[in-house]
Protein: Riboflavin biosynthesis protein RibD
Amino acid sequence: MRRALAIARRGPADNANPQVGCVILDPSGCIIAEGWHRGSGTPHAEVDALSRVPAEWRERSRELTAVVTLEPCNHTGRTGPCAVALTEFGAGGIGAVVYALGDPGQASSGGAETLRNHGVSVTGGVLAGEAAALLGPWLARAFPSQAGSARPSESAQPTDSPRPHVTVKWAQTIDGRAAAADGSSQWITGADARADVHRRRAEADAILVGTGTLLADDPSLTARAESGGLLVPAAEQPIPVVIGHREIPADARLRQHPALAANGLGAPMQFSGEDLAGALTELHERGIQRLFVEGGPTVASALFAAGLVDEVLIYIAPSLLGGPRLALGDIGVASMAEIKQLRIVHTAQLGADLLIKAAVAGPNSSPASRSQEGS
Structure:
């Protein structure tokens, strides 16, 4: 679904039709085709993806799963209904469909029911909050009286949220240290974990770092992909953002970030950090819908304390450092009654390292209800 959300952003953001992405999976979960909507009058994401399915899979279409960011439409407009296209594809139609948000349109909704009536397994609500963040501007334009009512709802960001979806990432030793006592931190984790970080950077609209990390490490913050055994700049690059009062050095590698020229920016965007919520609101107004934070313990802790984090990616190395350099500092928790709950949604072994991905539980949910989410 995250890949579908990433390619959905390739479509025009100010179009009358929504930005939608679709990937087709084989039975092992590998992507064999993908597509996105390029604007009014062009094939919808599902049809675009189906057109790219290799010929050998068309006779085995019932084994395939379509993952799409918006419930497949159920009406004929300038193009035909995607729900029907999915049921008529190949030899007997697609076997399963997974979508994020339900279609709020009176005429276009009902695709899930049509699919089920044709024997397709349908699952909705996967990463609905992230899809809502992506489609918020379109929903506000197309359905002003229904703002925030996209189906199905989740306890994630509403469609009228004034800030991006915030992912905070850090690497740590198994004893919770992000750096050695002398401040050095490269590299705590191995090559596999770092490659995973690059992939996730490429899925974000912007990448944020604090001035402390900027001055200590002089990071490039680019997303890189493997090509011919070498790491080269990825096609999709997040816009660099800096938090903190101190100036960005004239020779900082971040000033050469490829996303600056691509987006008509002369320098990385910078905010003082005194009003984190206001900074995120401004980023949202500039079209940033997914923010990837690699700002170091100070920035990460401040975002947690302000209640501005949606999910965390923690890369854990099987090593020990000890000392004072913790991966997370004061997050505003003074007692167990104030503990911030997380919900683990994914784990992965990356070489010798372990990745834990967790969603930040809503402030009004109980520990009991949180333990049942995603079960």
